[in-house]
Structure formats: structure tokens, C-alpha cells
UniProtKB/TrEMBL annotation:
One Gene Ontology biological process: cysteine biosynthetic process from serine
Lineage: Bacteria, Bacillati, Actinomycetota, Actinomycetes, Micrococcales
Gene that produces this protein: cysE
Location(s) in or outside the cell: Cytoplasm
A single cellular component GO annotation: cytoplasm
Protein family membership: Belongs to the transferase hexapeptide repeat family.
Entry protein name: Serine acetyltransferase
Length: 195
């Protein structure tokens, strides 16, 4: 997909997720979550070509400008939407699928000082369609199954199956119902997404 098509897709995803978005121009110019993702793409391309220092400089500049820190080594799918964004941190070995949504102050981080060897996964994998509420911490090399929702301020340290609702400190796993899925995402999902 060419870069302009990706930008159009990102703007459309933001408009889908945010009922406050009034126009494509507003989203393009004023949404720091999109600016952070676009900067990440530049930094990630540099990172993958072996230019780690320039990649880190791009990511740090984006962090300064947006308040969102995405390590250039992270793997991020299509249509990531970061709503409000301030304080979001995505670690180096994090993997995000398509259609993931993060609210402000989310941390996708490690939980140990050990295991910093190259090639060792230390950060979470969020499968397609995962929503993570504001202030939540998803820590360690765990997997959050597709179309799951992590509640605000939850602390998640264990793998969860698809279509889970994770709430509390430490987070407990509950199956999603149509009502909890609709409330978490601000709209309805197709019935096959429920447990």
C-alpha cells in the first residue's frame, strides 16, 4: 500500500473511532495519535535498514512533539488509533495487530530487568481489534487475544484468549457480552465477535 493510501486509511479509522472528529482536515492536522504513528513508520523503516540512531532520534522527536513514545523496533499493524494519546508508551518488542485502539496513558511494556538479550520478546502482543482503556498497563511477553478489551487502569500480566474483558489490578479475565463490547468500543460489533 502506498504511503498516501495508508494516510487516508488512518484518517478514516480515526473518524470511525472518534465521534468528535468533524472533518478529515481536522484529523490530519490535529490528531497527535496519528502524527505519532506516521513518525513511527519513518523511524521503523530506518530501524529495519540498520540505522538505529537516526530511528531513535526520529522517535524521540515524535515523543517530544506528541507525548507518545513508540519504539522504532515495535511491530504495528494497520489502522492503529491512539485517542488523546498523551503518555502512551509502546516498547521495542511489542506487536500490535490491525485495528488496535489505545487511549491515553497506556503502557505496553516489559516487567523484568532480565531478558534484555537481542531477539528476546519482552513486550505484549495485541492481536487484531484489541482496545486498551486509559491508564492500563499491559506488561511482559503476553498475548491479548483478538477483539479483547482491557479496562481503564487495569494491570495485565497474563495472556488472555480472544474476546476477553480484562479489568482490575491485577486484571481478571471475563468473557465479553454484547453490552460490554458495545460500551467499550462506543458501538456495536458483529455477533461473531462475542463469546
Amino acid at each position: 500500500m502506498n504511503p498516501f493510501a495508508r494516510i487516508r486509511e488512518d484518517v478514516a479509522a480515526a473518524r470511525t473511532h472518534d465521534p468528535a472528529a468533524r472533518s478529515n482536515t481536522e484529523v490530519f492536522l490535529a490528531y497527535s495519535g496519528l502524527h505519532a504513528v506516521w513518525s513511527y513508520r519513518i523511524a521503523n523503516r530506518l530501524w529495519r535498514t540498520g540505522l538505529q540512531l537516526p530511528a531513535r532520534l526520529v522517535s524521540q522527536l515524535a515523543r517530544f512533539l506528541t507525548g507518545i513514545e513508540i519504539h522504532p523496533g515495535a511491530t504495528i499493524g494497520r489502522r492503529l488509533f491512539i485517542d488523546h494519546g498523551m503518555g502512551v508508551v509502546i516498547g521495542e518488542t511489542a506487536v500490535l495487530g490491525d485495528d488496535v485502539m489505545l487511549y491515553h496513558a497506556v503502557t505496553l511494556g516489559g516487567k523484568s530487568r532480565h531478558g534484555h538479550a537481542r531477539g528476546v520478546r519482552r513486550h505484549p502482543h495485541l492481536e487484531d481489534g484489541v482496545t486498551v482503556g486509559s491508564g492500563a498497563k499491559v506488561l511482559g511477553p503476553i498475548t491479548i487475544g483478538a477483539w479483547s478489551t482491557v479496562g481503564s487502569n487495569a494491570v495485565v500480566t497474563k495472556t488472555a484468549p480472544p474476546r476477553s474483558l480484562l479489568v482490575g489490578v491485577p486484571a481478571t479475565i471475563r468473557p465479553q457480552t454484547p453490552e460490554t463490547a458495545e460500551s467499550a468500543r462506543g458501538g456495536t460489533l458483529e455477533p461473531e465477535y462475542y463469546l
